């Protein structure tokens, strides 16, 4: 049996330990905000936080989340997360939106680790997140804006 | 998708109104072929719904796949209605070609050719204006005043002394007012939403994980399906051993369908395990077995022969023969995948002689027709519930409804015993079609003593998109116009100009890919034009402007982009600028790229300055976003994307060997919109064509020759 918390709720899992976290969350918990884009850790659409770090849930087997604390886009309520979502909305980053849960999870993790990232830091942290609508230009701006907002609040 | 270019809109429109008892009213114009038809459609025509709770809902007949049409179309209604932006809502229309046809496409509901706003413009303005007039009439009744003395503002009717009634309060009574025969439209100087920055209506749901796409649709008892497709195009299943697959926990059924073998399971993961356990034998006798290298050889053989002439001004052959100041260039552009972020999918529920389909569709009319045939029901018994699409770029406008057909076949194969959610993997999506056709272009030009081109000959070899599909009727003559669009419409004043072409045939399925033929024709014509300028010792901007004297809208965007970018200013040795201009889908876009070259041949595209003329700019920020997106999509393809085939099978698998643009390669983008009073035209595609040639023209300064083979990669051989 695998035990962990997901969005603050304690959970147990007894199914196939090889099933990726993404499909468990989407198909069993019916939390559909995290998306499937590649299945092989190449696009970032499935990004969740495991113990505060961004991971590709499509390539994280359930066996690997024993005792972990998992956050999905539905449970994102950290200060950095809210700042990122606000900046995303203010700049209207989204187009089709399909990659954006993953973008927001990666960007939030970036700000939590580095409150004032440079363009290079952003490229580094975000290059695992594909966006076929190419909203990259606004993603970069929105991360800077969220960082500025957070700096002001402190 | 192809510009189905009927720019004349059907003006015979009638407004219909439906009172919604206890709710409010709904209104919308319907384009009828003739007045007699009108009686058949008494209940039709709902584009705008105003309800007692003071919400205004716009029914969106187009697919939103990221291009922001839900915001743009809603803004048009809000403008004429004088609504408050906060009270605006939207929902997708059902599949219904009678009510919700694209006015440019005839009796056909479809999103493509960057037409959504253009074809809806007058239709939705009339609906909004009529609804506004009826709300005013209703207020006039309530107050016993003359309607002419009332005004509207931000969702309220207001009288001379400042009394107010909200649209919600008036909704029911307004629904009983006569429909104005000719609703009075605003003049552009009265616009207060159009042309302003308004927030995207879909930002909140798309930043919180709440937006629902096809992959998120859940139905009671639904099974997850995956399909094992043929390894080569045209191969058919011989035998399959599914005994191991059926033993996988969660697998409920394995069924053979025309397009392969489907595994149905209680979860997507189980279905995938089941598919991995299948052992299939395929008959490849009818399959495509050529490789990319063979296809290129065949293309080159065709290129050596005169093609079918699609445009001829003057006598290019003679002018070329008589000149001794000439140049030639050949370009190779590969197959490209759409690779939408959401791999293709469709949910089908077949129950009680009704077929419900959930999918994001650019052509619900086609999908419905195909689905009806497969499930054996009349179209009235099919409903398509349009979902947000995680990208499309043309892919969800499939002439044979491929993935929708597949889902219907599976639902049929299990006799509708459960709703079916078909989900393609990334590999399925990459390998099962469809692709932007590969293209080979050859150019010859002759220059006069001043360095101006006097002859220009372009020969195109590519594959048709429309031949062999229900759209074949749009091909008149031996050449599919989507192969040459952009080349055959070259705007430059060149006395002797010829474009000819060959259609190559292969079993690799092709499709419209964002900006269609413009995606390759703009690249080759604009890069070649820079070579012409170089040979003639001319500045690329000056030469273009001299040749565009009769094309003021091309010249207008070119001048604006050049001015904003500082064209001609001194740059450090390791930097350069390049430009390109192109018209597609009746919009005009020019771009100036600034690049920095590094010593090892890697480079950075620092910035692209973009000027666009798309008529009246309804939602400027959405237009800017579409320019940014088109630039990233087009430039990314030129830098890294290619689909190749080996013995009939696609070689690429996933995003480790098919390489779209990532954030570190995205330039800064600055967009300028030309002020215009022309009717609005599309923006979903026109931002793409100039991006790659502008960058290639900038990089040229550091190279031995122009970049003639795409993708050109992220590291170049320096001069
Ligand atoms: S779906 Fe997990 S990285 Fe692409
Ligand atoms: S917004 Fe469409 S893929 Fe990123």
UniProtKB/TrEMBL annotation, chain A:
> Key word Ligase present in the record?
no
The UniProt record lists the 2Fe-2S ferredoxin-type domain at 1-76
**Alphabetically ordered keywords of this record:** 2Fe-2S, Iron, Iron-sulfur, Metal-binding, Oxidoreductase, Ubiquinone
Which InterPro entries did the record assign? 2Fe-2S-bd, 2Fe-2S-bd_dom_sf, 2Fe-2S_ferredoxin-like_sf, 2Fe-2S_ferredoxin-type, 2Fe2S_fd_BS, Beta-grasp_dom_sf, Diverse_Oxidoreductases
Q: Which domain of life is it from?
A: Bacteria
Short name of one Pfam family for this protein? Fer2
State the protein's name: (2Fe-2S)-binding protein
From TrEMBL, chain B:
**What InterPro entries does the record tag this protein with?**
Ald_Oxase/Xan_DH_a/b (IPR000674), AldOxase/xan_DH_MoCoBD1 (IPR008274), AldOxase/xan_DH_MoCoBD2 (IPR046867), AldOxase/xan_DH_Mopterin-bd_sf (IPR037165), N-heterocyclic_Hydroxylase (IPR052516), OxRdtase_Mopterin-bd_su_IorB (IPR012368), TAT_signal (IPR006311)
A Pfam family of the record is MoCoBD_1
- Signal peptide residues on this chain, from the entry's feature table: 1-35
Keyword entries, A-Z = Signal
**What are the residue boundaries of the Aldehyde oxidase/xanthine dehydrogenase a/b hammerhead domain, all occurrences included?**
208-286
Q: Which domain of life is it from?
A: Bacteria
What PANTHER family would the database entry show?
ALDEHYDE DEHYDROGENASE (PTHR47495:SF2)
Q: What is this protein called?
A: Xanthine dehydrogenase family protein molybdopterin-binding subunit
- The organism named in the record is Bowmanella yangjiangensis
């Amino acid at each position: 049996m695998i035990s962990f918390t997901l969005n603050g709720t304690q959970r147990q899992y007894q199914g196939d330990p090889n099933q990726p976290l993404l499909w468990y969350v989407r198909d069993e918990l019916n939390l559909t905000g995290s998306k499937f884009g590649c299945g092989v850790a190449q696009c970032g659409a499935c990004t969740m936080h495991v113990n505060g770090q961004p991971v590709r849930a499509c390539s994280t087997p359930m066996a690997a989340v024993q005792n972990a604390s998992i956050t999905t886009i539905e449970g994102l309520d950290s200060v950095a997360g809210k700042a990122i979502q606000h900046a995303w909305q203010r700049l209207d980053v989204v187009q089709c939106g399909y990659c954006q849960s993953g973008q927001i999870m990666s960007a939030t993790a970036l700000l939590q680790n580095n409150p004032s990232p440079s363009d290079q830091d952003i490229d580094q942290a975000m290059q695992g997140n594909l966006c076929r609508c190419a909203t990259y230009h606004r993603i970069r701006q929105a991360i800077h804006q969220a960082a500025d907002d957070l700096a002001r609040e402190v | 998708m192809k510009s189905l270019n009927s720019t004349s809109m059907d003006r015979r429109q009638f407004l219909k109104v439906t009172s919604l008892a206890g709710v409010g009213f709904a209104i919308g114009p319907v384009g009828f072929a003739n007045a007699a038809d009108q009686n058949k459609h008494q209940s039709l025509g709902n584009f705008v719904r105003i309800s007692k709770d003071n919400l205004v809902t716009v029914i969106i007949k187009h697919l939103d796949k990221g291009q922001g049409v839900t915001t743009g179309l809603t803004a048009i209604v809000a403008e004429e209605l004088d609504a408050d932006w906060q009270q605006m809502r939207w929902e997708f229309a059902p599949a219904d070609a009678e009510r919700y046809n694209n006015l440019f496409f005839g009796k056909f509901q479809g999103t493509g050719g960057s037409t959504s706003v253009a074809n809806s413009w007058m239709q939705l303005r009339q609906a909004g204006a009529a609804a506004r007039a009826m709300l005013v009439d209703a207020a006039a009744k309530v107050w016993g005043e003359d309607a002419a003395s009332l005004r509207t503002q931000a969702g309220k009717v207001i009288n001379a002394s400042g009394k107010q009634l909200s649209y919600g309060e008036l909704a029911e009574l307004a629904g009983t007012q006569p429909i104005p025969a000719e609703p009075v439209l605003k003049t552009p100087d009265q616009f207060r939403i159009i042309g302003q920055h308004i927030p995207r209506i879909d930002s909140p749901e798309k930043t919180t994980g709440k937006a629902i796409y096809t992959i998120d649709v859940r139905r009671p008892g639904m099974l997850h399906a995956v399909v094992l497709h043929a390894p080569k195009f045209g191969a058919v299943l011989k035998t399959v051993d599914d005994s191991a697959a059926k033993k996988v926990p969660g697998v409920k059924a394995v069924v053979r369908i025309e397009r392969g073998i489907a595994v149905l399971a209680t979860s997507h993961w189980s279905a995938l395990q089941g598919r991995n356990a299948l052992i299939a034998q395929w008959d490849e006798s009818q399959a495509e077995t050529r490789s990319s290298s063979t296809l290129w050889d065949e293309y080159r053989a065709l290129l050596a022969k005169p093609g079918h002439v699609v445009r001829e001004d003057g006598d290019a052959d003679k002018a070329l023969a008589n000149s001794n100041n000439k140049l030639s260039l050949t370009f190779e552009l590969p197959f490209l995948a759409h690779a939408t972020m959401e791999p293709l999918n469709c949910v089908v529920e077949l129950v009680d002689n009704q077929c419900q389909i959930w999918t994001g569709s650019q052509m619900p009319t086609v999908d419905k027709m195909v689905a009806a045939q497969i499930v054996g029901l009349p179209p009235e018994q099919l409903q398509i519930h349009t979902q947000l699409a995680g990208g499309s770029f043309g892919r969800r406008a499939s002439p044979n409804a491929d993935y929708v057909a597949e889902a219907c076949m599976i639902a049929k194969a299990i006799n509708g015993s459960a709703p079916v959610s078909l989900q393609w993997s990334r590999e399925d999506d990459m390998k099962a079609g469809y692709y932007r056709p590969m293209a080979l272009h050859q150019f010859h030009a002759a220059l006069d003593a001043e360095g101006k081109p006097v002859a220009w000959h372009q020969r195109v070899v590519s594959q048709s998109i429309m031949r062999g599909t229900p759209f074949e009727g749009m091909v008149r003559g031996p050449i599919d116009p989507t192969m040459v669009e952009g080349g055959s419409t070259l705007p430059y004043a060149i006395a002797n100009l010829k474009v000819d072409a060959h259609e190559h045939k292969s079993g690799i399925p092709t499709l419209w890919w964002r900006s269609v033929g413009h995606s390759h024709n703009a690249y080759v014509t604009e890069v070649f034009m820079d070579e012409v300028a170089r040979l003639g010792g001319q500045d690329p901007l000056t030469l273009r402007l001299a040749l565009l004297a009769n094309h003021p809208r091309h010249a207008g965007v070119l001048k604006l982009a050049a001015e904003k970018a500082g064209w001609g200013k001194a740059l450090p040795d390791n930097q350069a600028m390049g430009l390109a201009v192109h018209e597609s889908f009746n919009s005009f876009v020019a771009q100036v790229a600034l690049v920095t070259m590094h010593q090892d041949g890697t480079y950075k595209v620092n910035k692209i300055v973009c000027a666009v003329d798309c008529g009246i700019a309804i939602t400027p920020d959405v237009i800017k976003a579409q320019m940014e997106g088109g630039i990233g999509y087009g430039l990314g393809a030129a830098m890294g994307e290619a689909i190749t085939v080996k013995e009939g099978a696609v070689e690429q698998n996933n995003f480790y060997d098919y390489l779209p643009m990532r954030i570190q390669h995205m330039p800064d983008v600055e967009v300028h919109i030309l002020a215009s009073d022309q009717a609005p035209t599309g923006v979903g595609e026109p931002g793409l064509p100039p991006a790659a040639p502008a960058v290639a023209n900038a990089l040229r300064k550091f190279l031995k020759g122009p970049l003639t083979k795409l993708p050109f990669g992220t590291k170049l051989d320096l001069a």
